[in-house]
Structure formats: C-alpha cells, structure tokens
Amino acid sequence: MEYNITDRWAVVCAASRGLGFGCAEALAAQGVNLVINARSPEPLEEAADLLRRGALGVEVRAVAGDIGDPEVRREVLDAAPQTDILVTNAGGPPAGDFRDWEAEQWDSALRQNMLTPVELIKAVADSMAERGFGRIVNITSSAVKAPIAALGLSNGARGGLTGFVAGVARQPSLASRNVTINNLLPGSFATRRLTDSLEAESRDSGRSTEDLAREARQEIPAGRFGTPEEFGAACAFLCSAQAGYITGQNLLIDGGAYPGTF
Ligand code: NAP
C-alpha cells in the first residue's frame, strides 16, 4: 500500500537499533527522508548507512547525542529542512524498587520519557499545523495500560506523557489541521532492551536467560516476541496520509498479551 508520504521529512529519535530503527526503516521504505538520532555516534552512522542502502533515493542524516539534552534536540530538529513526521523515543528507565528511587532517578525518568517528548511536540506541532500535515508518534510502553511494578519509573513518566498527549492531540488547532499525535505501546519485542532485561533477571534469579525467555513467550498469546519490523510497520501506517483521522490513540502492539477488552 502506498502511504503517500514520499519526500516528507521525519525525525526519529533513539533510532540506531530496536524499535526506533524499525520505525525509521519502515518510513524510509515509504520514501521518507530521515534525521535519526542516538547517543553513540558509531552505531548511529552504521544505522544511517543501512537505511541509505535499503531505501535508495532517501536522504538520511544522523545527529548523535542524548535526546534529553535541549541542545541536542535543537540540533536534531535543525537537521531536517522541516519536520513532517516526529517519532519520539529514548531508552527506558531502569527497573527497581520504588523505595530506592530518589528525586534524581525520578528527574531522569521524567526528563527522558515524558518531558523530552513534550518539548519535541511543542517545537514542531504549530509549524506542522501551518503546513497542514503532521504526524507524531510516541513510543511508550504496554506498561501504560498494564503497569509493571518493577518499572515504576516508566509507569509514572509514560503515564504522564499519555495524559498530556490525550489533551493536546484533541486540540482543534492541531486536529483540524491534519496534525495527529498517537502513542504506540510495545509489549515484548526482541530488541537489546529485552535481552538486557532478561540478563538482569537471570543474574537476580540464577535461572538461564533461555528459560526466562521461553517462559515470557509462553505468556504471550502469539507465543513469540514481536519484531522491530512489525513495530515499524504500525508506525509507518500512523504516519501515512490515510491515517489523518486517527489521533489521541494508544495502540498496543503486544501479541495479545494485554488481557482486557479495551
Ligand atoms: P533498544 O533496542 O535498547 O534501543 C534503544 C535505542 O535508543 C538505541 O538506538 C539507543 O542508542 C537509543 N537511546 C537510548 N537512550 C537514548 C537517549 N537518551 N538519547 C538518544 N538515544 C537514546 O530499546 P528498544 O527495545 O528499541 O526500546 C525503545 C523504547 O521502547 C524504550 O523506551 C523501551 O523502554 C520501550 N519499550 C521497549 C519494549 C521492548 O520489548 N523492547 C517494551 C516496552 C517498552 P544509544 O544507546 O547509542 O543512545
């Protein structure tokens, strides 16, 4: 299916691998030019090369740096002639016990997973509205719908972003001008983040990562982890011209793991 977004410019944050890269790849396949970002320059450049080779004719620019840093955000946005599509993303906060988290840990989680997307949305939304096209997708987590106790920092920060988006997306100044804002909620995807979590759990429990992974897969009705390609495909659809009437939504992509009707 043609998504009618060829030659648009997308800024995809935290995209040298994993879900961000999946989104960048799916957008590039639709002929979208990209600015991608991540902290480590080398893997970021490698990812940019991979994207250039995969989608000929698409321009890919790479800006390294922590997306939580206001100067990096400015550089990332300035690297695109205009931002038609914005995918916000960053690493998730660490797991732990709420008794151990001090203001410092909360500040970091809130900055990375709530205030950074808020600032990015603020920076691009009005100019998208002026041009009559804008697609914003925030990568959050299934924990927004089904909180995971050990991921309290993520539950809190992403919950805050979700509430903010729910209000902003419905503002006529954006919605009536073809600017949509939606959240994608990943369940369990086969990325470095998942491998790292399984390894941490294995160290704590003394069980093998293979056993833990098998058990985790069994809890998912689909019987497997999702792939960044599947995630990217959903992102590209939400960024399509055809998705202009979908806004303020939270789309779970979790292989059926969430047990609720809504
Ligand atoms: P991943 O495979 O570890 O990839 C994370 C990407 O983000 C890398 O490119 C990393 O590169 C970049 N990054 C991390 N922090 C950054 C920062 N502050 N500024 C710029 N780039 C940054 O993780 P993932 O699985 O794709 O996860 C993406 C998001 O989805 C995370 O917030 C995660 O918590 C959430 N999520 C994932 C799952 C899952 O099953 N995978 C489930 C629920 C939620 P550098 O390290 O070089 O910066």
How would you portray this structure in words?
α1 packs across α9 and α4 runs parallel beside α5. By secondary structure, the protein is α/β, with parallel strands linked by helices. The chain has 9 helices and 7 strands. The longest helix is centred in the middle third of the chain and has 29 residues. Strands 3-2-1-4-5-6-7 form a 7-stranded parallel beta sheet, sandwiched between helices. β1, α1 and β2 form a beta-alpha-beta unit. Helices cover 46% and strands 14% of the residues. The mean pLDDT is 97. The radius of gyration is 18 Å and the shape is globular. The protein binds NADP nicotinamide-adenine-dinucleotide phosphate.
Terminal-residue CA separation? 28 Å
User: Helix count?
Assistant: 9
Unique ligands: NADP nicotinamide-adenine-dinucleotide phosphate
Overall form: globular
Strand order, main sheet: write it out: 3-2-1-4-5-6-7
Strand content: 5-15%
The run of helices and strands is: EHEHEHEHEHHEHHHE
Count of DSSP strands: 7
Helix content: 40-55%
* Main sheet: strands, sense, barrel: 7 strands, parallel
Question: Structural class of the helix and strand makeup?
Answer: alpha/beta
Uncertain spans, ≥5 residues at pLDDT below 50?
none
Cα gyration radius (Å): 18 Å
- How would you describe the oligomerization state of the chains in this entry? single chain
What is the average per-residue confidence, as pLDDT, rounded to a whole number? 97
